[in-house]
Amino acid sequence: MTGFSDYAQTLRPRIEQALANAVPTTVDSRLAEAMGYALSGGGKRIRPLLVLASYRALTGNHDHPALDNIVCAVEAIHAYSLVHDDLPAMDDDELRRGQPTCHIAFDEALAILAGDALQTLAFETLSQADSLTAEAKLALIQTLAQAAGAQGMVLGQAIDLAAVDGTLTLTQLERMHRCKTGALIDASVAMGAIAADADAPSRRALENYSRAIGLAFQVQDDILDVTADTATLGKTQGADAARNKPTYVSLLGLEAAREHAHTLLAQALDALAKLPGDTQPLRLIAQYVVERER
Amino acid sequence: MTGFSDYAQTLRPRIEQALANAVPTTVDSRLAEAMGYALSGGGKRIRPLLVLASYRALTGNHDHPALDNIVCAVEAIHAYSLVHDDLPAMDDDELRRGQPTCHIAFDEALAILAGDALQTLAFETLSQADSLTAEAKLALIQTLAQAAGAQGMVLGQAIDLAAVDGTLTLTQLERMHRCKTGALIDASVAMGAIAADADAPSRRALENYSRAIGLAFQVQDDILDVTADTATLGKTQGADAARNKPTYVSLLGLEAAREHAHTLLAQALDALAKLPGDTQPLRLIAQYVVERER
């Protein structure tokens, strides 16, 4: 394994297969199609990779069958949030990863419903992770719910929407991102640790890692929004700036934003030192988050 | 207890208090407001009453503290579905129970998010029903997820939307309603039975009860859509007919629809005969479902 791309490539068939199996086939075809479209929309699968890499950093492998349930659950939540976030009443985006967004490919009503059903699927999938104890399954459900709901991801989206044409301080911007994207990244890492039945010091180390890369991910997104072109990005370049949304770049300037991302990367790598398993995948993910070009 | 209204009145403070406690207070105020608005929007609280009455039909009381978690979970799912169903891209309703719908009282984006967060809250609340075993909590989560998702409520909404200006046979109409409203009514009753640790024959009897009243509820809704006036109904009278949606009345005619509702009522009451507890509340709810005027 020489780098992030190789690592991601190795795990991609497993992740895509798990996701393809997740949507029940007996469902009404249009709804199932829209759910499958949202779930199979490509993307880097950072959250699934974090689940697997977190487990590997604790155990040296990622063979546990419950990891497939966790991968599906976290990606279903992520996919639903993108579908709803792209709606005309929200960010009104027509392109996502170079493809028509769900409400363009289908229609608005079906996109709302597909998002709703993907959220349900996430919790159902965790409740069926039968290679784990009932207590562990409940811990997974609690962790995901707290990350996804009104104190996590959805709160972040609400703060983000309220901030259009408004102003946020750096502290407020960090809180928004910790909720909007950071909470689910934290949950991905934490859920890998739950599957591994990790001890408290390992969980704390992983929390420090995930908090740092969660913010770094957003800082890099803001940098790419002003530096990458639309074709590379797969979404409209400058979209945040055009909406007058506060970003790390607008608040810090481009150079200081880049420095901030690298400081966070160093924090993430530091946190991995005491983990007992194979930490190389988590290291590769952290480097990728800060060095990616789209 | 002389009738449904008295029964509902007696339990209303408990139900409203449980719902008021459910929305976390540390949440961003606008998001929490919209969630609270959707959850406190009045209504008959049929699903919470079914949870409590089901437990009572098995045990003779409804004192178990986990019932409050179940009540909140089932009503949070119901409330989220109404908020999303009322959106312009879906049914485009501006009134719900005589009050502005969530996207009118707030805005569309916040209504989407509040609905999303209410769904998460449902699963989080069940995972915290700590007076139950981990196995029972998981059974609740599975039951609710199966009822709410792509094989239950959301599927029913997708079929319903696809049926506007289309045609459905009576069989297709029943399937749509079994999913759209029946699944969550079934789940309410089943979740009361899970809290009571009911045996298999009791669960089957309760399933027969809930399937009958679930359909009866919808038949009566269709009857009221053509017979009640807008003020009594609290929503626009004739709305379904105006959208050319198939209904029991359009398929069967008014008189046959009324007969169908009473046949279903008789089936529901029959199913209660073998239950060991106090079945009077379930009886009152069944009668109310068919005899209500709004």
TrEMBL record, chains A, B:
One of its GO terms (molecular function) is metal ion binding. Pfam families: polyprenyl_synt. PROSITE patterns: POLYPRENYL_SYNTHASE_1, POLYPRENYL_SYNTHASE_2. GO terms for biological process: phospholipid biosynthetic process; terpenoid biosynthetic process. Its cofactor is Mg(2+). The keyword Metal-binding applies. Keywords: Isoprene biosynthesis, Magnesium, Metal-binding, Transferase. It comes from the Bacteria. GO terms for cellular component: cytoplasm. Belongs to the FPP/GGPP synthase family. PANTHER family: FARNESYL DIPHOSPHATE SYNTHASE (PTHR43281). This is Polyprenyl synthetase family protein.
